[in-house]
Amino acid sequence: MTDSAAVDQIVRAVIYPAIGVARVGNSEYEYVVGPEVPDPPRLPAGSYRDKAGALKRQAARFRIYGVNAAGEIVRELSGEGTGAKITWHVELANAKAAWYTFQLALDIPEAASAPTTTLRNPTVADRSKLSILPGPRSVAGANAKPALFDNGAFMGRTVYLGEIFTDAAGRLLVLGGRGVSASHDGSAAKDFANNDGWFDDTSDGPVTAEVSLDGKPLDVTPAWVVVTPPNYGPRRKSVRTMWDLMRDVAVKSNSLAVPERPSFMQDILPIFQRLAGLQWVNAGFAAGFGWKGVFDLTSSEALSRLSSAAPEHAQERQTISNAFRRFDVDSWSPKPWPWMYGDAMNIPAAPTPRQNAALSDLQLFMLAQWAKGSFGADYDPHHRPPAVIEDVPVKQQGDVLTRAALEFCLADAFHPGCEMTWPMRTASMYMAPFRILHAPKGWTSPKPRGRLTSESVKTPNGPLWQQQAGGITRWMAVPWQTDTASCLGGYDKSYDPYAPTFWPARVPNEVVSQADYKIIVNPKESLDARKAAFAKRASWIEPIDNPDYLVRINNMVGEFGKLGVVEELDGPTDTDAFPRLIEVEDQHITPATVQAAAGAARVAPAATRTDQSEIVKLRRFPHGLPVQVR
């Protein structure tokens, strides 16, 4: 066989993305497909809701590629005329209620000072009633009819977790649940993460397939799907994404090489763009990194300097690099970048370096290289990223699909988080970079004991090793709505009313309202009025907010679909006083309107008000911390 023939010889199949991300929504049937390129074009306004105003679910789409002996993609096997026959297999499960409480990430030293990690629902003797286990489903061919995950149950109540089907090319689509969360006994939620008697319809599990090419069976490298809460900021990425975190894990475990020279376009510029992008979901970031902000790093003038390796810009690069938080230098202070809470966040701040977040070690290393001038000065102001995966060279499509899915997932403040949490920092969770290690068929996981510690969690073949369906989302809050409604920004108002913040890229804090946008783009309004409207931000949480914290989190359970989605719209063209693109909340329903529409379904305000400082999420160390936890 010639070398060229070997390159084109398909020897096995691989499913991409390695981890797909689906999201719940309360629309009965409509959905959008999740990002398949890292910088997808915006969808038309209104695309995230159905005609009734319900929030569409996000589908995860999977493809199968044939690869050669070197592991390089030769071509996609999904679709007509490929000579391939594919049968997809997916298993979804929700094991939250049968798992342990979330108190604090168990891979950090502060966990020893947090409340004990014990089993959820400890009084339920028959633990099988707590896990929603509908079993595997399969589909084959093009336009396969949906196979529903609709026979799993929680405490005897049937719970729909989603469905799978294929598109016209035979690619797999996975939909999750519709955001249904409830308690089996009608009790109200009381905690940000651990509500006994409750379930939700998020889930996760393995994605596998049987593939034959021209009649010959191929081994298939499997993937995973995670069904998560909605994305209320679909254009936004956090400063450190789940892709950044998993890349860092792979580098530290020697599964990936450290880049010899970081690329400005691929490694440095995205950090600056994400800081600037958070201006649409947090007022503090708007003032600091937004349009004409104090630290506007993405203007054409700034980028002409920051993208240059010339010695005359060395001090500016060093100053910016120094502004990012390093745990061994300035970890306690809220001032360094990014202005995000960390895994051990507490109010008042505890003496821990993880009170606030930092970039990944790899990101910080690449920033340091950039500061020294040792980077690829490859900035192209006219570059246009691929709009669809078909615009990407086929050999790169698999990795791009994975990056696109994971860059819209958070890796900040694993408290516990939005999509996935702290176990994803553990190398034993992976079979390859970005690819979760599957448990073998028939494997029985160790039975959970009464409590989990930072030591017992590391047991070989324990929860941080091979995974079964439900193994990723079990670490998250139950239900997810109570945590989402708890994670805002600016809890210490004496320092700053908006920052630090938790997860604004997924759970916005302050947003441009439709009413203010109409003023901004109206040339008949005075420029001063338009600038005032642009500077103004509405409270995103307002439609379900209440001074009583318990009312707020319970309102979120039933009304999450009413909260605004931040969409990208065109800015004014008659003046250069505003950016050309502005992100705007698609709706902002006042509390009075919501209450009238919801009627008795809405929880009435309590007679007494709960002080925010008394929220359990903000008080992780009831007995204090040892001095200077490292």
* Bulk shape: globular
Report the sheet with the most strands, covering strand number, pairing sense and barrel closure: 8 strands, mixed
Q: Whole-Å distance between the termini?
A: 57 Å
Quaternary form: single chain
What is the number of helices?
14
Which residues form runs of ≥5 with pLDDT under 50? 599-611
Radius of gyration: 24 Å
Number of strands: 26
Helix-and-strand structural type: alpha+beta
Could you provide a short overview of the structure?
With 630 residues, this protein is of the alpha+beta class.
Provide tags for this entry.
6-stranded mixed β-sheet, 20% helix, 26 strands, 8-stranded mixed β-sheet, globular, alpha+beta, 630 residues
Note the topology:
Layout lengths: L2 H6 L3 E5 L2 E5 L7 E3 L23 E11 L5 E4 L7 E8 L25 E2 L17 E5 L6 E3 L2 E3 L2 E3 L2 E5 L5 E4 L6 E2 L14 E2 L3 E11 L2 E3 L1 E2 L1 E6 L13 H11 L11 H14 L5 H7 L10 H7 L7 H9 L4 H4 L30 H12 L21 H14 L22 E3 L2 E2 L14 E2 L27 H5 L25 E2 L2 H7 L6 H9 L2 E2 L9 H11 L6 E5 L10 E5 L5 H8 L32
